[in-house]
Design goal:
heterodimer; A: alpha+beta; four-stranded antiparallel sheet; globular; B: alpha+beta; 4 helices; 3 strands; extended; Carbon-phosphorus lyase complex subunit PhnI (chain A); PhnI (chain A); lyase activity (chain A); lyase (chain A); Phosphonate_metab_PhnG (chain B)
Chain lengths: 369, 157
């Protein structure tokens, strides 16, 4: 029998009021400001923007504050917010070759135009807790040095000059890239849609899948051709003016993974590539994305599809942490009626077995009854 | 001797592009200060917005290949009409509506010959100088982290 469940409103209101209190915490401490979160928890803000698929530092910082630092909850809040806004247009593709570089490294070439520039990295730190951060001590200003003149050449262009690497992935002319936010997913999907899904995918999930390819589940012999982090211009074509204008700059992280390829009937041996592009400073995510992008190209490159990371439907269907959270967490909502049905079924099965075996079970009473 | 340009001639698109890009990068404070210091405030009629929406930001596969949808960004835009009949537009990343409205006003003021010098000298030049200084600072701080490799030379036996 279906019983309408009512009566939770008072408890829910009280729970939300309690949540607001716990979110604020000890009132004798100053409240965190949005600016403090954006400045001092910048990489958390970047992760929320990337996985919410919405670039806005202030709103991402607000979401982190509202969610008490639960980043998936913050991503959920930002995703919900974006559904309230109209789409004003589509930018011209950002040009990462023109990036204002804040970090650029290559694991394939020691000396290359533009050099190896470490930027603000955790690499080479000793990962020892720093007790001086327990107090609010002053921090030294960064060092400065004259920048190199000239462009920072992309590593893929250096290899392309020798013909040793495949070209950037092209789509057929005049085919607009697919958009997951507008059309339901269908498999198999193009690389454009896969990259959109991976760019907003959960960092932990992509990290684990990328790791699995390194451990032998779809191995593809990767080298970090290049990682670059920095700001790029976002340009929007304005029909009312008849030209494109810059809307400002956004920070992105790009990873070019270079992978071995032994060649096929159609292509000579050459290096192939996996690509990662992520909002904000997020090297781990961009690297994981490029590993998984390359793994998902197995079929295109005539490789055997044997590992989870190469399974497009599996990877893309489970990469979104807002979807995953919704389905996992819905399990805690009332399932009283479903469970009653299962209870009745299990009792009947047991009764049937009991009847066959000639056993008699005493009457049972259920807490839910 | 060249003819003086007629006062109604529209500025070249490349100059307008630069103006709109700088206005998009101007902070709300910079715009407000320039507005407050403006000696004669024009009559301003809103035409569209200010309104916030989304722009889908695209990347390219492999950095230079076919386009794909990377994710969206918040953008706020406004269109205004001055009492003189000149329309101004503004589009900028973020959700700041006051900034978009002032940006559109200054775009319109920049298109008018008598106020263009004010917009150039009191707003666009300082914004351009600030951006250049910020870029320079970032480039120098980044350059200080460039690796200078050296090779260990083995001694001759």
């Amino acid at each position: 029998m279906y019983v309408a469940v009512k009566g939770g409103e008072t408890a829910i209101d009280a729970a939300h009021r309690l949540l607001a209190d716990r979110r604020r915490g000890d009132r004798s401490l100053p409240s965190l400001t949005i600016e403090q979160i954006a400045e001092q928890l910048a990489l958390a803000v970047d992760r929320v923007m990337a996985e919410a698929s919405l670039y806005d530092r202030t709103l991402a910082a607000l979401a982190i504050r509202q969610s008490r630092g639960d980043l998936i909850e913050a991503i959920f809040l930002l995703r919900a917010y974006r559904t309230t806004l109209p789409r004003l247009g589509t930018s011209a593709p950002v040009d990462t070759a023109q990036m204002k570089i804040e970090r650029r490294i290559s694991a394939t070439y020691k000396d290359l135009p533009g050099g190896q520039v470490l930027g603000p990295t955790f690499d080479y730190t000793h990962r020892l807790l720093d007790p001086s951060l327990l107090a609010d001590e002053g921090v030294d200003e960064p060092l400065r040095k004259e920048p190199l003149a000239g462009a920072t050449t992309r590593v893929s262009d250096i290899l392309a000059g020798e013909g040793l690497i495949e070209h950037d992935g092209m789509l057929p002319e005049d085919q607009p890239p697919g958009d997951l936010t507008r059309e339901p997913m269908e498999f198999p999907m193009g690389r454009d849609l896969r990259l959109q899904a991976l760019a907003r995918g959960d960092e932990g999930f992509l990290l684990a899948l990328g790791y699995s390819t390194q451990r032998g589940y779809g191995r593809n012999h990767p080298f970090v051709g290049e990682i670059r982090i920095g700001e790029v211009d976002v340009e929007l074509d304005l029909p009312e003016l008849g030209f494109a204008v810059s809307l400002g700059r956004i920070q992105v992280t790009e990873c070019q993974m270079v992978n071995q390829f032994k060649g096929s009937a159609k292509a000579p041996p050459q290096f192939t590539r996996g690509y990662g592009l992520v909002f904000g400073q997020s090297e781990r995510k961009a690297m994981s994305m490029s590993l998984v992008d390359r793994a998902l190209r197995a079929e295109e490159l005539g490789e055997d599809v044997t590992a989870p990371a190469q399974d497009e439907e599996f990877v893309i269907s489970h990469a979104d942490n807002v979807q995953a959270t919704g389905f996992v967490e819905h399990l805690k909502l009332p399932h009283y009626v479903d469970f009653q049905a299962e209870l009745a079924l299990v009792r009947k099965m047991r009764a049937d077995i009991g009847a066959t075996a000639g056993e008699s079970n005493g009457p049972v009473s259920e807490a839910a009854e | 001797m060249s003819e003086p340009l007629p006062t109604s001639s529209p500025p070249p698109p490349e100059a307008r592009r630069r103006t709109l890009s700088l206005l998009a990068r101007a902070s709300a404070d910079e715009l407000r200060a320039a507005w407050d210091a403006l000696p004669a405030k024009p009559e301003v009629k809103p035409v569209r917005g200010p309104e916030t929406g989304l722009v889908m930001v695209r990347g390219r596969i492999g950095g230079g290949g076919g386009p794909f949808n990377l994710g969206e960004a918040t953008v706020t835009r406004a269109t205004v009409l001055l009492g003189s009949g000149t329309a101004g537009h503004a589009h900028a990343l973020g959700t700041d509506k006051a900034k978009a409205r002032l940006g559109a006003i200054f775009d319109a003021l920049w298109q008018e010959e008598q106020t263009r010098p004010y917009v150039e000298s009191r707003l666009l030049a300082p914004v351009a100088a600030r951006i250049e200084a910020e870029d320079r600072k970032l480039a120098e701080e980044t350059a200080a982290t460039r690796v200078d490799f050296f090779t260990m030379v083995r001694g001759d036996d």
